[in-house]
UniProtKB/TrEMBL annotation:
Gene3D superfamilies: NAD(P)-binding Rossmann-like Domain, ProC C-terminal domain-like. InterPro entries: 6-PGluconate_DH-like_C_sf, NAD(P)-bd_dom_sf, P5C_Rdtase_cat_N, P5CR_dimer, Pyrroline-COOH_reductase. Its EC number is 1.5.1.2. Pathway: Amino-acid biosynthesis; L-proline biosynthesis; L-proline from L-glutamate 5-semialdehyde: step 1/1. Keywords: Amino-acid biosynthesis, Cytoplasm, NADP, Oxidoreductase, Proline biosynthesis. It catalyses: L-proline + NAD(+) = (S)-1-pyrroline-5-carboxylate + NADH + 2 H(+); L-proline + NADP(+) = (S)-1-pyrroline-5-carboxylate + NADPH + 2 H(+). Residues 2-92 form the Pyrroline-5-carboxylate reductase catalytic N-terminal domain. The gene is proC. It comes from the Bacteria. Its main location: cytoplasm. Residues 163-258 form the Pyrroline-5-carboxylate reductase dimerisation domain. This is Pyrroline-5-carboxylate reductase. It comes from Qiania dongpingensis. Belongs to the pyrroline-5-carboxylate reductase family. It is found in: Cytoplasm. The lineage of its organism: Bacteria, Bacillati, Bacillota, Clostridia, Lachnospirales.
């Protein structure tokens, strides 16, 4: 199977490296990026042939991974008309399946929603498919995504919500971790040591939640001993509206995603 990558930004790069790590002998990779040096550097690092144009990458491929910016999609799709009918894996942010079908009406199309943690093989990635995608093709897409973390199939109507809790939450979490480290810095601990402690605590808390199947509130209660320091911090978070701020931030992401999708449909 030959896979062509159109655009090789951070997520496409993570997928390419993931495929390369698994040493999948039956996959041959082609790639085009406007920054020629990026494609050539990848060709040296991975088993990938750098192409001189997106048309060349498409011509040599059975499967096309579109990893261009939303504003570049129309011009790229216009050049790739001959790829219609191939399996299209879209990493184009905010572009619905219906929008992609306007450009590739005869193609099986997978819409992929990863997050930045793909860089360390820890993304949680959403997958939406149009009705032309077969079960075999779904399995193929899943295998490709194994190299960047976990994945799950979702209904496209939940893409905005997934984009929030799957893609925007890392940004929220980084801000939270940094705030904890700043508080420790104020009390005299080095920032780097505080970041390590906070990050490991967040990682461990996520593992506990996933593996214990216990409600988050119950786990928080287990952490707070009567009259202890932790409960004082929890009460202060409640007082300052921590949960409300999270709800409003999530809603802002979902509304922005919904507005972008609506604008996309009108084009």
């Amino acid at each position: 199977m030959k896979i062509g990558f159109i655009g090789m930004g951070s997520v496409a790069l993570a997928i390419i490296k993931g495929i390369n790590r698994r040493e999948t002998a039956d996959l041959e990779l082609f790639g085009y990026d406007p920054h020629r040096e990026r494609a050539e550097a990848l060709a040296e690092l991975c088993s990938l042939k750098a192409c001189g144009s997106d048309e060349e990458a498409a011509e040599n491929s059975d499967v096309l991974v579109l990893a261009v910016k939303p504003g570049e999609l129309a011009s790229a799709a216009e050049r790739l008309k001959e790829a219609d009918g191939k399996l299209i894996i879209s990493l184009v942010e905010g572009k619905r399946l219906a929008s992609m079908e306007k450009w590739f009406p005869n193609s099986a199309i997978a819409r992929i929603i990863p997050n930045i943690n793909a860089k360390v093989n820890a993304s949680v990635t959403g997958m939406c498919f149009n009705d032309k995608v077969t079960e075999e093709q779904k399995l193929f897409v899943s295998k490709i995504l194994e190299g960047i973390g976990t994945y799950m199939e979702i209904e496209e109507r939940f893409a905005g919500i997934f984009g929030c809790i799957g893609s925007a939450v890392p940004a929220f979490t980084y801000i939270y971790i940094n705030a904890l480290a700043e508080a420790a810095l104020r009390e005299g601990m080095s920032k780097q040591k505080a970041l390590e402690i906070a990050a490991q605590s967040v990682l461990g808390s996520a593992e506990m939640l996933l593996k214990s199947a216990v409600h988050p509130f119950a786990l928080a209660d287990q952490t707070c001993s009567p009259g202890g320091a932790a409960v004082e911090g929890v009460l202060m978070l409640h007082k300052l509206g921590f949960e409300h701020a999270v709800h409003e931030a999530a809603l802002a992401v979902i509304e922005k995603s919904s507005a972008a999708s609506t604008e996309d449909e009108s084009i």
